[in-house]
Amino acid sequence: MSDKKAKKGAAEAGEATVSVAAHPRAKASVRRARARTALAAFVIVLLMSLHAGVPGQEAVMRAIAGGLAGNLVGWFCALAVWRAIVVQEVRLLEQARRDRARARAEAAAAAAEMA
Question: What is the tally of structural domains in the chain?
Fold first, then answer.
């Protein structure tokens, strides 16, 4: 409980937080990845089960279980990829901010020397 309260307190204090869920492209991409991996796993397991001679109803049940597993695997992989992307984007934004600040400081120093 104290973890949740600390996070809530940090959010109320106005601290900027970065999350995959708040990223404009990540949420849709994660949903697509989950759906595609679930569908692919469902189809693969269904075809393999039918090819192995498993009765239809049992093959569909196995395919549903495979689809659920595929959904979870797709979700995990998509989150891992998007976490790395979001962290890199934050680093790039911070570097650009530093570069702009350095350029402003150099321009101000050059203007002070001219005066």
Answer: 1
Q: What is the pLDDT along the chain (115 residues), one digit of tens a residue?
A: 566 665 665 556 556 777 788 888 888 999 999 999 999 999 999 999 999 999 999 999 999 999 999 999 999 999 999 999 999 998 999 999 999 999 998 888 888 888 7
pTM metric for this prediction:
0.69
Query: Tokens in use for 91?
Result: 């680093």
Q: 110 is written with which tokens?
A: 């050059």
Flag whether 7 is in a domain.
no
Tell me whether residue 70 is in a domain: yes
Q: Is residue 19 part of a domain?
A: no
Look up the domain containing 77 and give its range.
24-114
CA distance 65 to 76: 17
